[in-house]
What we know:
The chain is an alpha/beta fold. It has helices at residues 11-20, 34-44, 70-80, 122-128, 140-152, 165-192, 204-216, 219-222, 226-229, 232-243, 249-269, 274-289, and strands at 3-7, 25-30, 48-49, 60-63, 88-91, 109-115, 133-138, 156-159. The radius of gyration is 24 Å and the shape is elongated.
Amino acid sequence: MPTLSCIGAGLLGKTLCHLLSHQLTIGQVINRSANSSQQAVDFIGAGSAGSLDNLLPADIWLIATPDDGIAAAGQALFESGVLEAGNIVFHCSGSLGANAFQFASQGVSRASVHPIHSFANPSQSIQSFAGSHCAVEGEPQAVEVLSSLFNAIGALPFDIDGDRKVLYHASTVMACNYLISLLETSQQLLSASGVSSTEANPLEPLIRQTMDNFFASDAKSALTGPIARGDDKTVARHLAALEAEPDRPVWQQVYSALGNAAVPISAQQGQASAESLEIIQKLLTANISGH
Ligand SMILES: NC(=O)c1ccc[n+]([C@@H]2O[C@H](COP(=O)([O-])OP(=O)(O)OC[C@H]3O[C@@H](n4cnc5c(N)ncnc54)[C@H](OP(=O)(O)O)[C@@H]3O)[C@@H](O)[C@H]2O)c1
C-alpha cells in the first residue's frame, strides 16, 4: 500500500489519517510537539511520531496545519529533500487552492481536498464522515488519486475550479455560520417583541418548515411573506420599527440586506407587481446605505 504521512495531525488530520489507514500505510505523524504527535498516533492507531527535522519519504503528504501554516509546512517539506517525482502533497483548507504550495513542482503533484464536515469531535467524525461532500482541485494526478481514496472512505468528492474556490468557501460559511447569525437575530427580535421562548420556541416549526420547503423545491417555491406579496407598506412598517431600536443597528442591516436578496426571488415568482418591488428595493437600499 502507498504511504501517507501527515504534517499537522489535529482535529482534521488525525481523523482523516485514521479513516485512510485502511487504504494507505500511515507513515510519519508530525505536530509541533512530540507529545501531540504521539497522541495523534495513538488516536490514528497507526504510524509513528515524527518531526520536521527528520522527515522520511512517503507517497502522499497531508498538510493539515491551520491555514496560515500550510505554505510554510509545504516549503519545509520541499526543502527537506524527501519529495520525489510522483509524490502527492495536499491540504484541506476551504479557502486556499493547491497553489498555496509555492514550491517548484519537480514532478510532485499538488492538490487540495476540502471536506464539508465539522471535525470538532474526531471520535464522532470517524463514525459520521461517510457521506460528506469534498471539494477537490489541483494537479490531475493528485486529483484522480485523492478523489478515489476519499471515495473509498465514503466521501462524495466533486471537482472545483481552484480560481473560484474562495467563492465556494464563502458559500459554505454563509450556509453554516451566517445561518446561525440569522437565526440568532430572529431570536433577538422575538425577545424584543416580548414573546418568551424559554419553553417551546415558536420560531422552530417555521424554520424547519421553511428549510424543508427550500430543499424539496427551490427558493422561488419556498419564499412567502411581504416581499413575495409585494406588500411595501408592511416592509416600511418593519423598517420603522427597527429604526426605533438604535442600539441594535445590525437588526436593520440584516433585515435590509436579506430583504434585498429576496426581491429578485419574488420577481421570479411573479406574484408581486414590479412597482411594489421597486418601492421595496428603494426602501431597503436606502436603509442599507443609511440615506
Ligand atoms: N476542523 C474542521 O472542522 C475543518 C474542516 C474542514 C477543513 N479544515 C481544515 O483542516 C486544516 C486543519 O484544521 P484543524 O481544525 O484540524 O486544525 P487544528 O485542530 O488546530 O490542528 C492543527 C494541527 O497542526 C499542528 N501544527 C501547527 N503548526 C504546525 C507546524 N508548523 N508543524 C507541524 N504541525 C503543526 C498542530 O500541532 P500541535 O498540536 O503540536 O500544536 C495541530 O495538531 C485547516 O486547513 C482547516 O482549514 C478543518
